[in-house]
Every structure is written in C-alpha cells, then in structure tokens.
Write a structure and sequence with these properties.
With 196 residues, the chain is an all-alpha fold. The chain has one domain. It contains 6 helices and no strands. The longest helix is centred in the middle third of the chain and has 44 residues. The C terminus is likely disordered.
Length: 196
C-alpha cells in the first residue's frame, strides 16, 4: 500500500469497480465551487492505493474517498472562516487605535469609517499595506492579529477541529478494517481469490 505515487492523470486509467460492484459507487456530493475533476483524481488515487477486490472492500474504499474529500473540504472552509475573521480582527484592532479618546458623539461615525477601512483592507492591497503598517506602529503585528483572529473564531474553529478529528479517526478505522478484511483468518471474510 506504500507504492510510489503516480502523478494523477499521467496516463493512468480511472480505477472503477467491476460491473457487479458499480452500484456501490455513488455520485459525488459536491458543494458549489468544488471541482469534480479534483474529486475524481482523489478518488482514483485512493482506489488505486487501496485496490479493493470485494464488495465490502469497495464499500469501505468509497467511504475512505468520501471522508478524505470531507477532510479536504473542512480544511478549506476552516481557512475561509479564518480569512473572514481576520477582517473582523483588523476592525477590532483599528477600534482600539481610532476610538481611543474620541467623544461619544463621534463614535458612531468613527465606527462606520473603521468598518469601511477593514473592508478596504480585505479588497484593496494598497489599503491593506497601509492599514497593516499603521497597526504595526501601534503594536498590532501579524502575531497579535492572528491571536485576535483565533480568539474571535474560537467556537466555530473548535467545531471544525472536531469535524476534522472525527473524519480522520473514521478514515483510519476504515483503513484498518480494510486491512483486517484482507488478513482475516475466517473463511467468511476472506477474499474471493483466497477461497479459490
């Protein structure tokens, strides 16, 4: 199972189950923006590595593919979440700087301006450079901003961590089960080729 990895799509045919097992291969459930081609490349690589031979192994291999895709999806979504909270962390840091000593009457207008600056930070590279330099002069370096990002995103971040850990543990269990299926000593769980 630890053969050198062949570059995906480099002349290798897709690994598909024998016709009697084709019903075991469900269509991929992709979210908008996810690539069917990347999914198929991942699926083919996993199927090639596992090389399922029985119906049970095909079912388990399909689950490994789905879990692997979910893990990748969770990582991408977690990263997007952190990017979103980074804008909020920038806004929060700007508030500490810009609202210090400002009168209560001007606070609402200043808050609106700060929100616009945080949006500009996200969409305009020049504004982002200027804002980050300004924050740095007040002690808000990348490390401080990162800490604020994780502080603001902590609850949802923990949800993603739990999802990732659960999917990874399930994937490891499935891979162990495939290995157990292959090495079982009982006649009912042996490969068909072993019973011939």
């Amino acid at each position: 199972m630890n053969a050198p990895f062949n570059a995906l799509g480099a002349g290798t045919a897709p690994v598909v189950p024998p016709p009697e097992f084709e019903a075991l291969l469900p269509p991929p459930l992709l979210l908008p923006g996810e690539s069917l081609q990347k999914y198929q490349l991942m699926r083919n690589a996993i199927f090639e590595e596992i090389a399922p031979r029985t119906a049970i192994e095909w079912l388990l291999a399909v689950d490994v593919v789905e879990l692997s895709w979910e893990i990748q999806r969770y990582r991408v979504l977690r990263h997007k979440l952190l990017e979103h909270h980074r804008q909020q962390a920038i806004e929060h840091s700007l508030r500490h700087i810009d609202l210090a000593g400002i009168s209560h009457e001007l606070a609402d207008a200043a808050t609106c301006h700060i929100r616009q600056n945080a949006q500009a930070w996200r969409t305009d590279p020049t504004s982002a450079t200027e804002i980050e330099a300004r924050l740095a002069t007040h002690g808000y370096d990348a490390g401080a901003i990162n800490a604020e990002v994780y502080l603001q995103a902590r609850e949802i971040f923990l949800v993603f961590e739990a999802l990732l850990n659960t999917a990874q543990n399930r994937r490891i269990s499935l891979l162990r089960e495939i290995n157990n299926q292959r090495h079982a000593k009982y006649p009912l769980t042996r490969h068909r080729s072993d019973r011939l």
